[in-house]
């Protein structure tokens, strides 16, 4: 695959990024989340090559790597591991179906910015290989194999939300997903005169993966302590707040903060969904601001850049809600902004942000699109 420019693909897959309106860090705690696929995508071009070798080229990194299907080992480069992991898990579940392939991948999603370029890549690889080799993967398999690749090859012990949204996204709709039993329904994204604006901080603090995994452990240990007295409590997000307040003071103070955040955010997500259903966007937006406070103060996954942008949004008249989005420690804020104020908001935020941090902000408006699909 030395000539990428004249690459003749057999199939093209488009795989979107995702946003999450509210319900952050709840997926691995069995809570409610409200994500959606967006109109920005990763594109993957595939063809079979009749060997046992797989050649992968990333246009964004201008990096090529190759591996043999019979020798799959974790790589030092993160983007390699998405391929290696997904191929590994497909091969385990459906032995001898995948043959050698060439793949070119290009992303219009900002990488490492909280819009889940990683889930887009994993699910796009799974979808592409499924089509190329007629494997017959179900959507559920694509979701769980992609999540497993992230756990075991990339090392982030993520929940299911991102892969779920990337696969099941539906144009114009949010997904109200209960991560405990994975039941879901589509909810029209009726934001009327408000646009969804993402402000990419262009910072990605390197604690992100280790702190993410630590939060998960803290929540698991908090739940275990609750279960010592209340064995019937199986799902952290569903534990009544009175129980959290009774058990919490006996725990490490950070653990108490984490579990308090989880039960409060779950209640907020339910309240926000109800407000949205009633068309009460002001209450919905207020829930976004409160979600950010919890993420910043109790869950401690924000950073000065994100806090600065949310504070700025609070004082801007045309913005009804704003918070950090995704795993945190950098990436984007999500903002609901009155359509006729979008330009002014972006201009004000860009200027203030560059004055404060000497970093350029990358703002963009997103629309809600469909999930991963075969284009040709
Ligand atoms: C990351 C993870 F991949 C998701 O599973 C989710 O936990 C999210 O952070 C926080 O809500 O995107």
Automatic annotation (TrEMBL):
Its EC number is 2.7.1.6. One of its GO terms (molecular function) is galactokinase activity. Keywords: ATP-binding, Carbohydrate metabolism, Galactose metabolism, Kinase, Nucleotide-binding, Transferase. The keyword DNA-binding does not apply. It holds the Pfam family GHMP_kinases_C. SUPFAM superfamilies: GHMP Kinase, C-terminal domain, Ribosomal protein S5 domain 2-like. It is an enzyme of class 2 (transferase). The keyword Cell division does not apply. Residues 7-46 form the Galactokinase N-terminal domain. Residues 81-169 form the GHMP kinase N-terminal domain. Residues 274-354 form the GHMP kinase C-terminal domain. Belongs to the GHMP kinase family. GalK subfamily. This is Galactokinase. It comes from Flagellimonas algicola.
